[in-house]
């Protein structure tokens, strides 16, 4: 990149009014960590009148090693499976305080209650907790930073791991081409609960992501935003490529970007000249085995066919 | 004060609402269900102003009261048996995070085999969670312990479990003094939390601790729990001042009955003490000098109070509604470890009895007192360890061959 190009990029970035106050640098995330970017954007967008609940996972561990904390807003971690349950209680407490007219909480009428959780905590172990929170209608924005595996415990598969991916529990080998079940459709599951606002995003487009955070916070009730957050360690790419990979996921259609309101898809990011999935797969170690032989080739074809079907269903091709 | 003939669960529900919690979150399970329903009824009639979460599971009941407590709310939940197991993971964090919350447990056995009846296998398995554990002998005490639990939890910043025996106390109707709002407010003023998630003073709660800090983080609640006896004694004394009901001569930690001149003692938790007290009256008619010791608190373990009250007896029979498979009854294990270093320790025998609601009659307990009396002359050093544990109600005839031969 030339200096001019870099300056241009930085000009774009300065649009965000960069501010460390909510999620400070110096946390222990790996360089190039997608989820850490998500954390910063979420709290910057929400502002200081915010309480974040974070289940166990990479982001909890890297941000809160006692006695240090990267969090400039109020933040709580309890266990892996229960962030929505904890958030339900916090939100109910504030509702109770205001119902009782407790003066000391008068300023906090519009606190932002946010769960910031990995895909493992969301798609798998915390699903019951999340379902209950949705059903009861707590005013909580749930942000799932989707890095498509359990990174904190060393890259095991989750319900979000895409087909064909090698993880430590879906290793590729003579008889295996990696993960063999489809990625769980969490946004649809959220929408099926009657959640008013559901959206997907990619960290490669922070402006879009932050708009969605803001939209979710405005809803008077639960909202769900799922953001693709590439992980250089778990996916196997160089730290400076995080944004590129996020962008490629959108450009190949493997990670469609859309909004749902009251169960209906209302806005889809169209992709002109959708790129073949190989361009995305070949840049990540987790898919490298797919380029080794016939079976891998078949898997790639299947993946491509599924993306095409999904693109048609969502009317992505612009 | 209004005296009502009232069912145990309804009485506890009234006590909870009287304590005016900001958030109640609970999930039904027999025999606790009546408490949740009672609170729901009171809320439906406009007697409860806080939030009542009809939650999806005990796991999230515990999780949500943890969240609410961190936000600065007075909180309550209730459960039994398998529900307590489902709460166990989040509950273990509550003491480490110094979160006061009150949990009523209607004690019930744990599957398998499935049983809904009373024993203490549910709460004994949570003894290392860092929760204070109170046990009630009758419905009145379950009501009073509910209020004492809030007081102690909030003073010590520790979670408190208030136990009442399933069915034996939850489903009986007893005459109960249901506390009126004014004295409750005097005894339990509005909760003023020290640290909350207040967004205007940001805090990090429940952080990740590495080995150089974790030990200390565990030591603190352990120490506070060890010293919690004072706070429980104080709360019990102040409770007596406000409500006129007294709990035990040993500062509210241990209740005793006809122990002063006793040669042998029966030690038990909860409602079984009532049966034991009747049995003691009966046995004394036959010249057997026996008394009852009832710890009101199992965590912190009231070791000092027990050493004091058991100082004069030759033998203690622990009537125990729990078993730690592969070892023995948890209550007698704890008692033995408290007495071990004493030069003149009494013989301790463990009677595993009343599991999963098997009826315990006064005659059963008189029989145990008789047996103890005979043993009383035997020094603990002479007694064969494998004879210390007895299962008086075991039906040998229905055991499978592999254990009966
Ligand atoms: C009950 C329980 N099971 C398992 C774990 C181990 N564990 C901690 S974090 C984690 C994975 C987290 O994955 P995810 O939610 O996707 O977040 P990430 O680490 O990728 O940020 C696992 C399996 C745990 N802490 N608790
Ligand atoms: S392993 Fe991945 S998700 Fe975890 S801190 Fe490193 S880059 Fe971020």
Automatic annotation (TrEMBL), chain A:
Domain called Thiamine pyrophosphate enzyme TPP-binding: residue spans: 56-227
Q: Which keywords describe this protein according to UniProt? A: Oxidoreductase, Pyruvate
Q: Where is the composition biased (Polar residues)?
A: 155-179
Which superkingdom heads the taxonomic lineage of this protein's source? Archaea
One Gene Ontology molecular-function label: pyruvate synthase activity
- Segments for region (Disordered): 155-184
Q: According to the UniProt entry, what is the EC number of this protein?
A: 1.2.7.1
Listed under subunit, the entry gives: Heterotetramer of one alpha, one beta, one delta and one gamma chain.
- List, alphabetically, the PANTHER family matched: PYRUVATE SYNTHASE SUBUNIT PORB
Q: What is this protein called?
A: Pyruvate ferredoxin oxidoreductase beta subunit
Give the source species: Halalkaliarchaeum desulfuricum
Q: What is the lineage of its organism?
A: Archaea, Methanobacteriati, Methanobacteriota, Stenosarchaea group, Halobacteria
From TrEMBL, chain B:
What sequence ranges are listed for the domain Pyruvate flavodoxin/ferredoxin oxidoreductase pyrimidine binding? 15-226
Gene3D superfamilies listed in its UniProt record: 3.40.50.920, 3.40.50.970
EC number(s): the record gives 1.2.7.1
Q: Does the keyword Oxidoreductase apply?
A: yes
Ranges for domain Pyruvate:ferredoxin oxidoreductase core come to 262-365
Keywords (alphabetical) are:
Oxidoreductase, Pyruvate
Q: Which GO terms describe its biological process?
A: response to oxidative stress
Origin superkingdom? Archaea
Q: Which Pfam families does the record associate with it?
A: PFOR_II (PF17147), POR_N (PF01855)
Give the molecular function GO annotations. pyruvate synthase activity
Record note on quaternary structure = Heterotetramer of one alpha, one beta, one delta and one gamma chain.
Q: What PANTHER family does its record include?
A: PYRUVATE-FLAVODOXIN OXIDOREDUCTASE-RELATED
Q: What is this protein called?
A: Pyruvate ferredoxin oxidoreductase alpha subunit
Which species is this record about?
A: Halalkaliarchaeum desulfuricum
């Amino acid at each position: 990149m030339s200096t001019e190009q870099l300056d241009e990029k930085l000009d774009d970035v300065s649009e965000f009014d960069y501010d460390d106050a909510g999620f400070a640098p110096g946390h222990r995330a790996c360089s190039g960590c997608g989820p850490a970017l998500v954390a910063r954007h979420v709290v910057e967008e929400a502002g200081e009148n915010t309480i974040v609940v974070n289940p166990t996972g990479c982001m909890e561990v890297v941000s809160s090693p006692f006695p240090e904390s990267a969090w400039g807003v109020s933040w709580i971690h309890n266990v892996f499976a229960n962030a929505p349950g904890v958030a339900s209680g916090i939100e109910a407490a504030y509702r109770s305080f205001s119902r009782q007219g407790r003066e000391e909480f008068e300023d906090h009428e519009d606190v932002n209650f946010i769960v910031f959780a990995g895909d493992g905590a969301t798609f798998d172990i915390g699903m019951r907790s999340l379902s209950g929170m949705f059903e009861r209608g707590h005013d909580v924005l749930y942000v799932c930073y989707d890095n498509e595996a359990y990174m904190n415990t060393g890259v095991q598969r989750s319900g979000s791991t895409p087909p064909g991916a090698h993880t430590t529990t879906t290793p590729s080998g003579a008889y295996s081409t990696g993960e063999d079940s489809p990625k769980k459709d969490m946004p649809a599951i959220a929408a099926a609960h009657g959640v008013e606002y559901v959206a997907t995003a990619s960290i490669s487009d922070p402006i879009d992501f932050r708009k969605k955070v803001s939209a979710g916070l405005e809803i008077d009730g639960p909202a769900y935003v799922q953001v693709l957050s590439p992980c250089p360690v778990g996916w196997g790419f160089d730290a400076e490529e995080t944004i590129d990979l996020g962008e490629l996921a959108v450009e190949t259609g493997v990670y469609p970007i859309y909004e749902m309101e009251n169960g209906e898809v209302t806005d889809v990011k169209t992709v002109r000249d959708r790129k073949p999935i190989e361009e995305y797969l070949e840049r990540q170690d987790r898919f490298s085995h797919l380029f080794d032989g016939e079976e891998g080739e078949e898997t790639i074809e299947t993946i491509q066919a599924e993306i095409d079907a999904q693109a048609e269903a969502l009317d992505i091709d612009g | 004060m209004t005296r009502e003939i009232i069912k145990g669960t309804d009485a506890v529900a009234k006590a909870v609402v009287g304590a005016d919690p900001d958030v109640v979150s609970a999930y039904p399970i027999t025999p606790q269900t009546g408490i949740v329903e009672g609170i729901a009824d009171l809320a439906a009639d406009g007697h409860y102003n806080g939030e009542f979460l009809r939650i999806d599971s005990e796991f999230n009941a515990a999780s949500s009261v943890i969240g609410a407590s961190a936000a600065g709310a007075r909180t309550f939940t209730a459960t039994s048996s398998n529900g307590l197991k489902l709460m166990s993971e989040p509950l273990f964090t509550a003491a480490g995070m110094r979160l006061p919350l009150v949990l009523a447990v209607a004690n019930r056995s744990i599957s398998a085999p499935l049983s809904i009846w009373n024993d203490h296998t549910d709460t004994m398995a949570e003894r290392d969670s860092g929760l204070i554990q109170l046990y009630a002998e009758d419905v009145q005490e379950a009501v009073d312990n509910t209020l004492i639990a809030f007081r102690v939890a909030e003073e010590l910043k520790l979670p408190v479990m208030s136990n009442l025996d399933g069915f034996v106390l939850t489903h009986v109707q007893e005459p109960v003094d249901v506390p009126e709002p004014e004295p409750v407010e005097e005894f339990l003023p509005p909760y003023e939390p020290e640290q909350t998630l207040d967004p205007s003073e940001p805090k990090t709660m429940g952080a990740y601790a590495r080995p150089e800090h974790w030990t200390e983080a565990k030591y603190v609640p352990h120490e506070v729990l060890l010293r919690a006896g004072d706070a429980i004694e104080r709360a019990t004394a102040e409770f007596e001042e406000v409500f006129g009901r007294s709990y035990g001569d040993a500062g509210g930690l241990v209740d005793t009955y006809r122990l002063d001149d006793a040669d042998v003692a029966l030690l038990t938790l909860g409602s079984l003490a009532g049966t034991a007290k009747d049995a003691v009256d009966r046995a004394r008619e036959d010249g057997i000098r026996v008394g009852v010791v009832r710890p009101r608190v199992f965590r912190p373990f009231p070791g000092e109070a027990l050493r004091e009250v058991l100082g004069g007896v030759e033998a203690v029979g622990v009537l125990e509604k729990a078993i730690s498979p592969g070892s023995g009854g948890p209550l007698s294990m704890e008692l033995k470890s408290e007495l071990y270093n004493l030069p003149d320790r009494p013989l301790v025998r463990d009677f595993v009895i009343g599991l999963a609601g098997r009826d315990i009659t006064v005659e059963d307990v008189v029989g145990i007192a008789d047996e103890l009396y005979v043993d009383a002359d035997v020094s603990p050093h002479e007694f064969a360890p494998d004879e210390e544990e007895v299962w008086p109600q075991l039906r040998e005839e229905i055991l499978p061959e592999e254990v009966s031969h």
